[in-house]
């Protein structure tokens, strides 16, 4: 007999396995676990950093020591295991750090294999899609392509550690400008121990000739990941940056506490897109990544524009609020989000739009999908400061529930301190319709395809914001996450 | 084509269909009429395989195979089509995208090659013309914001695209203005052939002037209480259902 769609949806929730759980066997040069000032000095020394950066790290560390770990009261169901910061190893690099490969031919074939398995054949992607790829493997960047083309345009796109050496004045000028080292517990920790990440600088008037992308991947056992990304677009410049990741299967919770800072000067625009698929843990909530990221963009200049788009399907716990500070007059901030939680995953995500300048606008579209025992929370703040005359915000939060063990929560906070502000909020919660699945079935479409079609339809406005090749990947990811869902 | 024997079905333990017997030979058009709540849509949905209805007794064979044993999507691919009384909206999914997926799922099942985008659009154009369907509707999300009439027309358009052998039309005429009724009926008539059968559920004799049935059945309280030729439809229009004798004499 045909099966009950309700049961089938539950089965999906239970059966979804993490397709990309594998471990690459590459010898790592790893610092022993633990954190103190010597470890930070060790990291800094291994990266041959200038004195000012070491001091900056140490100051962040000393501040971090005075801070309390955030409370996790809003994750009531999760088997929260406190992070043991002394059990983490803060530095791990592929062995061949000294003589980094100059081209793809020199890259460890196993590493390339890893990318293949992830569906990210580096050379293919780069060549076919015209994407410049700065691949971060664990803590050290191992391959960078398309450098010449970017160089011609005057765009700097390189590993963060390289920027520290080659463009120290730019790094020093902008690092910590948007997310100060003492901003929050995890940002402070990141500032103290970050190992690498990406640096992008697009000079005045330049439109970056290609999409920039970076793939992050947690690999070495118990190695916390502390990426640091800094993107600066000068007057009239524009750039689109893509970040995506998957992680291997682990039984141990791993911490991911990245910091991303964006700065847009007058008339500049930055589009930052993320696909996040870190290991979510198993159906019992064992293992999985803790994803505590600080992402913030500063619309420094007039008419500047920062747009965040994210597709979050992974991690055991995600705690993430990509935000915009709309300082320049007529600046625009956008946030488009799809968050999917399944099994025992918890996502608490949203954005902060802080309106400081006149005629500033922000737009928020959030789509949460909850299945299994997943909990999905939208938490957003729209703050209109007194000088932000004629500020506008539009917020739309839609939640979709699959099965009856999951949850969706919406917490929109609005603080308007200027009477001319117009703030609109719309929200909806729906169950994935059995009538919709049946309708599609009646047209010959399998339940599995029906669910993925409905979910993709639900997310359409957000997926449409992604650059083409990323949208395809995102759709595939949602589909894979929905495999075995029914039938 | 379709053979329904002693079909009983319940919803949440309430019996709705109470022993339906119906034979629809290939190429014939049968109509079902009956008062509100008599079980017409239930019959259609049970045939299409909706889960909330539990078949408690009886059998249905479709082209010689057990229909009730198949999942709803398999029934569709085997050639059973139901035009919904209330077509469902699917936000964010373009009608064209959905329809191409449906057409190709059906084609694959039948051992045919997938239609590529060009062939698909060519077929869309042809079929849309017959039904006088505004193809800009197809760029919108499935049924979302369609007017009542547009939804019904889109259902028949989908039917034409999917090339089914057994078509169940649940009140496709309700909500259509007189011009649309003619267009939709013409569309259905154009699909009539010796291999394709229809089960047309309606409240109105008027439809049967356009789609002339071979047989008319009256459904009351979950049973077929009278069958006849198209004259039965006219008689019902004149006398209403009160004139129809209930087999048990219960609530007639
Ligand atoms: N899902 C359901 N839950 C509860 N009762 C139902 C359900 N579906 C149908 N019924 C009941 O079954 C009976 C038959 O309904 P059905 O929709 O088949 O009637 P119908 O003949 O199509 O009526 P109409 O002419 O109004 O379309 C009604 O009393 C209806 O309330
Ligand atoms: Mg009905």
Protein described:
The complex is a heterodimer of chains A (487) and B (252). With 487 residues, chain A is an alpha/beta fold. Chain A is 25% helix and 33% strand. In chain A, α10 packs across α11 (447-458). Chain A is globular and about 65 Å long. In chain A, 56% of the residues are buried. Chain B has helices spanning 40-48, 72-77, 95-109, 117-130, 148-162, 178-191, 205-210, 230-239; strands at 2-11, 14-24, 29-33, 53-62, 65-66, 80-83, 90-94, 141-142, 166-170, 197-201, 215-220, 223-228. In chain B, α6 links the parallel β9 and β10 (197-201). In chain B, α5 (148-162) runs parallel beside α6. Chain B is globular and about 55 Å long. The model of chain B is unreliable at 248-252 (pLDDT under 50). The chains are: A alpha/beta (487), B alpha/beta (252). Chains A and B meet through α10 and α11 of A and α2, β7 and α3 of B. Bound molecules: adenosine-5'-triphosphate and magnesium ion (MG). Magnesium ion is lined by residues 40-41, 85, 170-171 of chain B.
Helix content of chain B: 25-40%
Largest sheet of chain B: 6 strands, mixed
Pick out the low-confidence regions of chain A.
1-27, 95-100, 123-133, 135-144, 215-223
Radius of gyration of chain A: 22 Å
Largest sheet of chain A: 10 strands, mixed
| CATH class descriptor name of chain B | Alpha Beta
Indicate the multimeric state.
heterodimer
Query: What is the level-2 CATH architecture name of chain B?
Result: 3-Layer(aba) Sandwich
Q: Name the average pLDDT of chain B.
A: 92
Ligand list: adenosine-5'-triphosphate, magnesium ion
**Average pLDDT reading of chain A:** 80
Strand order of the largest sheet of chain B: 6-9-10-3-11-12
Beta strands of chain A, count: 24
Given the helix and strand composition of chain A, which structural class is it?
A: alpha/beta
Distance between the amino and carboxyl termini of chain A = 11 Å
- Strand % of chain B is 25-35%
Q: Can you tell me the number of structural domains of chain B?
A: 1
Task: Give the distance, in angstroms, between the N- and C-terminal Cα atoms of chain B.
Answer: 32 Å
Order of helices and strands of chain B: EEEHEEHEEHHEHEHEHEEH
Tell the overall outline of chain A: globular
The percent of residues in helical segments of chain A reads 25-40%
